[in-house]
Amino acid sequence: MANTAHLRLIKSGVQHWNLWRKEKFSDQPDLSDADLSDLDLKGINLIGANLIGANLTGTDLSGAYLSLANLSNAYLSEAQLIGANLSKTNLTGVDLSFTHLGQAILIETKLSKALLIEANLTQAVLNFADLSRANLSQANLSNTHLIKAILLETNLSNANLQGANLNRALLSEADLTRTDLSNANLSKADLSFARLIEADLHGANLNGIILIEANLRGANLQGSSLQKGQLCQANLGGVDLSHADLKSTNLKSSDLINANLSKTQLVDTNLREAQLTGANCHHSSFLHADLHQANLSETNLTAANFTAANLQKVDLSRSKLLATNLSMTHLTAACFEDARLDRTTQFDHTICDYIYLKKHEQDRQPSHGKFLEGELAQLLWTQSETINLKFHNGVNWTAFAKALKRIQRIYPQAQMGVQCIEHKGNGVILVKVHTAPNINRAKVHKDLMLAYVNTRRQFNQQDQTFDQAFTPESLQLQNPQDIINHLFDLLNPSVNSLP
Predict the structure, then answer these.
(1) DSSP per residue over 31-49, as a string?
(2) Distance in Å from the first CA to the final CA of the chain
(3) From CA 461, how far away is CA 483, in angstroms rounded?
(4) Which pLDDT tens digit goes with each residue over 223-266?
(5) Which residues partner with 135 through β-bridges?
(6) How many CB atoms lie within 10 A of CB 333?
(7) SS3 6
(8) Are 398 and 470 in contact (CB under 8 A)?
(9) Does residue 366 have a cis bond before it (omega within 30 degrees)?
(10) Where are the beta strands (DSSP E) in 171-286?
(11) Where in the chain are the domains?
(12) H-helix or E-strand containing 442?
């Protein structure tokens, strides 16, 4: 309980109280459990006071001196603490919801498990403060100083930390869902296992940050600096990292699926076993980056620079590699299934023993041995201008001709034409169709095969006699070029008459 003399004195006014404190500076005020709600206590000296359990709801403590005071279990909801000095104060578990703490000094203050919901801490100084497990959801912490603050498991969801200084702060397992951290300083802060889902970090300084296994799905990191950051196993799916600087960052085994990495600096970055499926890496720099066994399938790598990068065992299936620089890149065992590239894709001095043209280490090229100088580029350039159509148990050539003609009309820019026909054994026939570069071969392949299947169904019994001219047995007896010539001698009248 409060000292009755101290309680009577404080209610007589701030001037009398401060004069008494000056004269009796060694006395410790005891205002525990006192009801001081709605009082005007601006500028009061409560240094070292016992305010345990005190009711300060709605009290105006602007400019008050509360350093070293014990306010544990006190009630401070809606109090005014603008510019107050609460350094080294014990506010453990205190309800400070809706309080105004703008420009307050809270250095080394104990605020663990405190309630600061929608509190205003604009420009407050909380360096070295302990806010672990506190609830600051929807609080305004813009331009707040939180250097080396402890925010372990703290709830900062929907809070405003714009321009805040969190240098070397501990935020492990903190909840920063939809928090505004734009232009904040989080350099060397530890956010391991933190939740930053849909957080706004654009323009933030994240150099040396630790985000191990943090969840940043849907966050905005546009233009942020993450140099030398630790983000291994982080969830960055759908994150906007365009124009960001990730030089020498550790992103090993991270999830970057559908992330925006356009014009991003990833020089010397560790992306081993990272998932980048569907990511946009247009004009990004991966100079000297390590992407060993990373998944870049369906990724836009147009005009990206991979000079001297490690792309061994990388999945590049259905990726877009137009004008991509793969010079001096290590590409052994990479998968290029349906990758889109052309002669603007650079392979100068590429280091590569072999690649796969199908996923799951299928269709090794070369089938034996190693590539000679220039063979890789020539193979992939040729492959990029060819659609391989595989037929089992023969081909209905009339249906094929009609289907091809139809697709030629749909894709005139593809400039398609039969390149060669091969008998692969066991009744399998491979038809290679030449195309112009820069087309979506996977889509054209799908549409052509679908057109063939649908057309074949329409043919009656008379069409089957046409197929017999090109059985697997007849293919074995003829020169491939003779087959092509004979095929089109037979098909041209039919093709020309097709609608």
Answers:
(1) -TT-B-TT-B-TT-B-TT-
(2) 99
(3) 23
(4) 999 999 999 999 999 999 999 999 999 999 999 999 999 999 99
(5) 115, 155
(6) 18
(7) helix
(8) no
(9) yes
(10) none
(11) 387-496
(12) helix 441-458
Distances (CA, A) of 189 to 168, 230, 262, 321, 428: 4, 10, 26, 36, 60
Q: How far apart are CA 94 and CA 115, in angstroms?
A: 6
Written as six digits, the tokens of 408 are: 């030629």
In single-letter form, the type of residue at position 125 comes to V
- Judge contact between 294 and 272, C-beta under 8 A: yes
In 169-323, alpha helices (H): none
Residue 152 exposed, middle or buried by CB count within 10 Å (0-12, 13-18, 19+): middle
Q: What is the pLDDT of residue 369?
A: 94
Residue with tokens 């401070």, as numbered in its chain: 76
* Cα 159 from Cα 98, distance rounded (Å): 13
Rounded (5°) CA angle 462-465-467: 120
Residue tagged 């008379």 (tokens):
462
In whole angstroms, give the CA distance from residue 195 to residue 219: 10
* Count of CB atoms situated within 10 Å of the CB of 316: 29
CB 184 within 8 A of CB 205: yes
**Residue 438 pLDDT > 90, yes or no?**
no
d(CA 244, CA 260): 10
- The percent of the chain in helix, strand and coil, each rounded to the nearest 5, is 20, 20, 60
Please state, in angstroms and rounded to a whole number, the distance separating the CA atoms of residues 431 and 420: 6
Both tokens assigned to 354: 């072999």
Look-up: residue for tokens 């000056």?
Answer: 22
The CA distance from 143 to 145, in Å, is 7
**Quick one: average pLDDT of 385-397?**
87
Which fold would CATH assign to domain 387-496? Alpha-Beta Plaits (3.30.70)
User: Which pair of structure tokens corresponds to residue 30?
Assistant: 């005891």
Nearest by Cα to 421 from 488, 355, 466: 488
Strands lying side by side in the sheet with 428-434 = 386-392, 428-434, 417-425
Looking up tokens 């992103």, which residue turns up? 251
CA 449 to chain centre: 36
Q: How many CA atoms lie within 13 A of 162 on its CB side?
A: 7
Write the CA distances from 397 to 32, 38, 95, 308, 487, integer angstroms: 96, 92, 81, 47, 8
Which pLDDT tens digit goes with each residue over 34-52? Answer: 999 999 999 999 999 999 9
